[in-house]
């Protein structure tokens, strides 16, 4: 059964290249044996750098479920998730993930996944995108307000 | 000038808690001294686990620019980006990033950022969300198709 869903994701990833719609990536979200969301990479057609297959499939699946969590769901993605997509997966909290191509495979055809994984492990001052902290004391007010809030919806 | 923009992000993050709209996070994208996108965390109101402030601000800024890159832009975020948002930032490629609260501050009020950073460094079989590879050989067909494609839009 896992192979059947992955086969569909792979077929979509190939079709996405051939149709000129975007990069060679696709993902499905499956719940109780049913596909509840399908998506391909559409970064360039949507002018949206976050429109990776997994992010889009998660957004569609959560919309279908009307919930911000994917409990009981499995994600099938044609490639090992990049850090953005893996982060999205952790926030969505599906039960499990299957992937096919690796991040090294993606790097070999020009995608930055491996580079971004390396950057995440570096201290801020060594990263390629300069990153600096300022005004932490002022910003902590928001966290104190959250901490003190009753009836908040945690996620 | 950096303080002025960060002050606005911080104010929005506090307002987002007080209005019950979402978590204590906000972000701005600035280009040539002008704010081109503003966003708050709206995970629970949009039923979208990817609706973090930075992801939403990047999507809005790219929509405003009609491009999938944020060259020449600066991102001001009220909290150090989580792995999903940092990944999104790397894909969007702004010139620089300023943040206020840290991921440790976020962890202290119950947000998973630090946990996700730790998970990313673990091998798949030790992660909390089980992750397995299958059908790589079949999936490589999509990468070969991409590699062979002429006139493709790289991103």
Name the poorly predicted regions of chain A: none
The number of helices of chain A is 7
Widest β-sheet, arrangement of strands of chain A: 2-1-3-4
> What is the count of β-strands of chain A?
5
Question: Percentage of helical residues of chain A?
Answer: 40-55%
Order of helices and strands of chain A: HEEHHEHEHHEH
As a percent range, the share of strand residues of chain A is 15-25%
Shape of chain A: globular
Return the average pLDDT of chain A rounded to an integer.
96
Rounded to an integer, what's the Rg of chain A over CA atoms?
18 Å
Chart the SSEs and their pairings.
Two copies of one chain form a homodimer.
Chain A: H1 2-18, E1 26-31, E2 34-40, H2 43-46, H3 53-65, E3 73-79, H4 83-92, E4 96-101, H5 103-108, H6 113-120, E5 131-133, H7 136-148
Parallel strand pairs in A: 3-4
Antiparallel strand pairs in A: 1-2, 1-3
Helix pairs in contact in A: 3-4
């Amino acid at each position: 059964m896992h192979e059947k869903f992955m086969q569909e994701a792979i077929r979509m990833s190939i079709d996405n290249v051939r149709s000129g719609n975007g990069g060679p990536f696709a993902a499905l979200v499956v719940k109780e044996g049913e596909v509840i969301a399908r998506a391909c990479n559409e970064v360039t057609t949507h002018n949206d750098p976050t429109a990776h297959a997994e992010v889009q499939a998660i957004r569609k699946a959560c919309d279908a479920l009307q919930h911000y969590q994917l409990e009981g769901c499995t994600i099938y993605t044609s490639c090992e998730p990049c850090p953005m997509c893996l982060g999205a997966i952790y926030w969505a909290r599906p039960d499990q993930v299957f992937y096919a191509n690796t991040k090294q495979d993606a790097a070999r055809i020009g995608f930055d996944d491996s580079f971004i994984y390396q950057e995440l492990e570096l201290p801020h001052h060594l990263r390629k995108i300069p990153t600096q902290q300022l005004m932490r004391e002022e910003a902590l007010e928001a966290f104190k307000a959250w901490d003190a809030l009753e009836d908040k919806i945690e996620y």
